[in-house]
Amino acid sequence: MKKNLLFIGIAVAGLLYSCATNPLTGKKTLNFVSNSELFPSSFQQYKTFLNENKVISGTADAKKVETVGIKIKTAAERYLASLGQTDYLNGYQWEYKLVESKDINAWCMPGGKIVVYSGILPVTKNDAGLATVMGHEVSHALANHGAQRMSASQLQTLGAAGVAVATGSQSAEKQQMWQQYYGIGSQVGVMLPFSRSHETEADKIGLILMAIAGYNPEEAISFWTRMSASSNGQAPAEMLSTHPSDATRIANLKAMVPEAKAVAAKFGVVFK
């Protein structure tokens, strides 16, 4: 029994890190979903969201979102071209919308569909703060994190089925117990760390993109410090969260800034 469950856990964890190599991270990633399958659904969901929410247009803030968004997009194109990946953005249909909401949030759907909530603007404060946010969210899309999460969820479900098969001869009570163990173990031991690794990847790529776009990556540290203050210490423990703790994230960013500046320097962008 224990050997069966261990095998299932190892198989699932192995699959999570054993697929195609992403050019932006240099890592093997899990992805069962192609862009040709994912993008049409993403675009339709984005259109539906915009129809159901208040899009702010014609204001200075809306223009700022578009301007910063275009600079981040251009930076992504230049960076990918430097990596020999000029076709990587095929199928992307970039949009940058400011939506009225008190939520301190922003997101980018697969294919380049971006939303910034107005509630985050007091925290971004300036163009560099906004570039931090948009660079981070665009990086999630570029690294195919959405497709990876979908694929990981499929594997988690497959693992649960494996547990059911492995424990099928036991009592219903024990079967339920093993499913609970598997659910907690796979979530805390695999899925949540998987999600936190995505956040760190998006931070790193986002720093590079904002730097290539001309925004000092050190401003990302200031932004996340403000974000930390805005949460009033309400974040869950890191091991139970999809995101790194604020302290971990800020420490990581400080370590990442020199590399982001070095990459930007190759594009002729130098910061004092």
TrEMBL record:
PROSITE patterns given for it?
PROKAR_LIPOPROTEIN
UniProt key word Zinc: yes
Cofactor binding note from Swiss-Prot or TrEMBL: Binds 1 zinc ion per subunit.
Q: Write out the entry's keywords from A to Z.
A: Hydrolase, Metal-binding, Metalloprotease, Protease, Signal, Zinc
So where does this one cross the membrane?
none
Range of residues in the leader sequence: 1-20
Q: Which CDD domains match?
A: M48C_Oma1_like
Q: Which residues form the Peptidase M48 domain?
A: 91-256
- InterPro entries, per database record: Mito/Outer_Membr_Metalloprot (IPR051156), Peptidase_M48 (IPR001915)
List the cofactors.
Zn(2+)
Its family remark reads: Belongs to the peptidase M48 family.
| Protein name as it appears in the record | M48 family metallopeptidase
What is the native source organism of this protein?
Flavobacterium plantiphilum
Q: Organism classification, top ranks?
A: Bacteria, Pseudomonadati, Bacteroidota, Flavobacteriia, Flavobacteriales
